[in-house]
Amino acid sequence: MKEQVVFSDLGIIEYGDAWKIQENLLKEKVQNKSASAEAGVGSNLDEQDPHFPLHHLLFCEHPAVYTLGKSGKPSNILISEYEMQERGISYYNTNRGGDITFHGPGQLVGYPIMDLEKFYTDIGKYLRNLEEVIILTIAGYGLKGERSPGETGVWLDALVPGRSRKICAMGIRCSRWITMHGFALNVNTDLSFFDNIIPCGIEGKAVTSMEKELGYRLPLTEVQENLRRNFELVFNCELTLNVKCSTFNGL
């Protein structure tokens, strides 16, 4: 049987609120795995309760925000906190991997909360599969996504000096093989916000969007639908829509 992944569209949501949802889901699943181990249960307790699904995929957009990964360098931020406040841009130090990036309207952000023990215990493979989901999605619009050696994410003209540009950033956290954080695909994103940072801490490489490459704005819901379909294909799973989950309450 294919693993069941519950899909939820959080809409436009503050970064901190989305982070709280992820942390709550991860905490819940880690606790259930620990309880399963202590009870000598062969499978995760989540699997026995339909109200607490084992895997989630969250989609959202964020108001303008810069986020710095746990291995990131503050020197890659080229704008002061005062300037951020003046422009209404939030800022967070996060516990994901990677360096500095931007999230904002027109960007499709995906947060898979998945127990990799039900798929494979290989973080590198997980990241390559996330990249493959994006590569397949933008290919449907005639864009050739590629991997850049030693750099996570999806690029265009990855190996062409002076032309390499990033279209999707990635950064994750994993605890007891349960993932959180994820990817940010620039669909109709205002790219001028990236001028205030050294994106992902990589100098000399540009950032792009589907809109910039194609010359027109795309319906975000259409891109979401294509991405969901490719997620199911790459991870050999089945997405089910919106179930009630106590972890989402109280925000």
Give, in order, the helices and strands: EHEEHEEEHEEEEEHHE
Count of domain modules? 1
Shape type: globular
Provide the residue-averaged pLDDT.
91
Q: What is the CA-based Rg, rounded?
A: 18 Å
- Fill in the CATH topology: BirA Bifunctional Protein, domain 2
| CATH first level | Alpha Beta
What would CATH call the architecture?
A: 2-Layer Sandwich
Tally of individual helices: 5
CATH superfamily: Bira Bifunctional Protein, Domain 2
Unreliable residue runs: none
Q: What is the distance, rounded to the nearest whole angstrom, between the alpha carbons of the first and last residues?
A: 34 Å
| Percentage of residues in DSSP E strands | 25-35%
Question: Would you report the number of β strands?
Answer: 12
* Strand-pairing-aware structural class: alpha/beta
Helix content class? 25-40%
What are its keywords?
single chain, 251 residues, alpha/beta, BirA Bifunctional Protein, domain 2, nine-stranded mixed beta sheet, three-stranded mixed beta sheet
